Structures are given as structure tokens and as C-alpha cells.
Amino acid sequence: WQVLQWLGSERYAQHLEEVRTFYRERRDGFARALTRHFSDIADWQIPQGGLFFWLRLKTPLDTRTLLDAALAQDVAFMPGEPFFAEPDRHRGLLRLNFSHVLPERLDTGLARLASVIREATPHDKEL
Question: How deeply is 89 buried, as exposed, middle or buried, from its count of CB atoms within 10 A (0-12, 13-18, 19+)?
């Protein structure tokens, strides 16, 4: 009964709006930083729900191999391969959480992660 009273209250509706605004601002800031640092190396869609961006690298790497290098740069991400029954058939996916990243650290963290990916991406040598 108490839960139903809370869910139907104006206070709960106000709380939901505050939470939605908070996470929408985080999501939108994350999207802008992704555009600055990842537009040439990955594709993504802006999530309509949840707290994660899924990126697909344009050059599919096994993202599990990038985690140690990212952690050495003080950034973390979730490799996408373990989310699939056949991980090796789904390379080049990263799951990035935007909910807890402080806005003042966002740009630096995504720049570092993009650098790790660029360093691991094979480049064609010019003749």
C-alpha cells in the first residue's frame, strides 16, 4: 500500500523528472564527447533508455584485448564480446556507461580511450 501511495504521488513524479533530466544531460554530454573523439573510428546510436552507449568500431578489433591498455590510462569500458553466445563472431563492440562519469572528466576519459583504440588499430602502410 505504501509503495502504491508513493508511485502515485506528485513527489514521485517530480523525482522521476529530476532523474530523467540528470541522466539526459549526462547522456547528451557523452554523445557530444563521442562525436569529438570517436566519429572517425566508431558508430553508435543515442540510447533512448538505459545508461549505456554501444559503440561498433569501424575496424573490428577484439575489444577484450584493449581493456588492459585502457585501464593503464585510467579509463574503463566493458568489452562487447562477452555479451554474445559466440563472442568471436561479434568483435569490435564496446559498452560505455555514461551515468557515473563526472562531466569534467568525460572529455579526457573518452580522448584516452579513443587513443588506446587508435594505437591498436592496424594501419595500411603507404607504398
Answer: exposed
One-character DSSP codes across 61-109: --GGGGHHHHHHTT---EESGGGSSSGGGS-SEEEEE-SS--HHHHHHH
pLDDT tens string 14-34:
999 999 999 999 999 999 999
What's this model's pTM, rounded to 2 decimal places? 0.87
Cβ contacts of 94 within 8 Å, gap of 6 or more: 42, 54, 55, 57, 63, 77, 78, 79, 80
DSSP state of 56: E
Nearest CA-CA partner of 123 in 58, 28, 56, 51: 58
**pLDDT tens-place string over residues 66-75:** 999 999 999 9
**Distance between CA atoms of 37 and 64, rounded to whole angstroms?**
20
